[in-house]
Amino acid sequence: MEVRTKVLEQSAKLVEEQVDAQLAKLNEMDEDDLERLKERRLEALKKAQKQKQEWLSKGHGEYRDISSEKDFFSEVKDSKNVVCHFYRNSTFSGNLREPPTATQRSGTKFTKVEKKTIRGRGYDSDSEDD
């Protein structure tokens, strides 16, 4: 138990020293340093906003129904993160309206495709017809 206490004390001391060093660095900043810091933060915010607008223009943040296999590939090829719900109208999960995170995660594109849309291409997990 004593070893754990010493390790925790050493860890806390190390973190405290790092915080003190950061505070000292901030206290030594002059107006020019603060202005550069503000400019870097503003550029980061502009970049994040530009990325968000790009995602929204690609349909991120909404839940799209895809009607054909061709549309599926054109919808998902330009997006790094895609969640696709393959469904059947005859099942309960086919009635899923919108995942709760679809509008909250603009970095991910959410789509849904009715299973019969891509039938006959080896994607099918069962043999029954819709």
TrEMBL record:
It comes from the Eukaryota. InterPro entries: Thioredoxin-like_sf. This is Thioredoxin domain containing 9. Residues 12-54 form a coiled coil. Keywords: Coiled coil. Residues 111-124 have a biased composition (Basic and acidic residues). Residues 92-130 are annotated as: Disordered. SUPFAM superfamilies: Thioredoxin-like.
